[in-house]
Amino acid sequence: MEIDLKNNEKAFIRPYEEKDFSKIQDLNKREGWSNLVENHLSTKEAWKNSNVTLIIEIQGHGIVGYLRGLTLVLVYLFVNC
């Protein structure tokens, strides 16, 4: 999905690809979510097994956020922008 932003930039929401993982970890680190960064393999496996995995990318700026969802008994959404 392509979105035109107010500043004439374009944002893209697209499915997660494995090549995105290092940028996701950079966002996690910047947010202070050290448990996700330190448990690298578990976090990567969680991304592979999540029901919803979307990447938010801005043209010229790269990945700026993500949405990851999973269901156990309840629905959980993790949003990082």
Strand segment tally: 5
Span between termini: 17 Å
Strand order of the largest sheet: 1-2-3-4-5
Compute the CA-based radius of gyration: 13 Å
Strand/helix succession = EEHHHEEE
If helices are DSSP runs of H or I spanning 4 or more residues, what is the number of helices?
Answer: 3
User: What are the segments in which pLDDT stays under 50 over at least 5 consecutive residues?
Assistant: none
Arithmetic mean of pLDDT: 88
Helical amount among residues, as a percent range? 25-40%
Organism: Oceanobacillus sojae
Protein name: N-acetyltransferase domain-containing protein
List the helices and strands and how they pair.
Elements: E1 2-4, E2 10-15, H1 21-31, H2 34-38, H3 40-49, E3 52-58, E4 62-71, E5 75-80
Antiparallel strand pairs: 1-2, 2-3, 3-4, 4-5
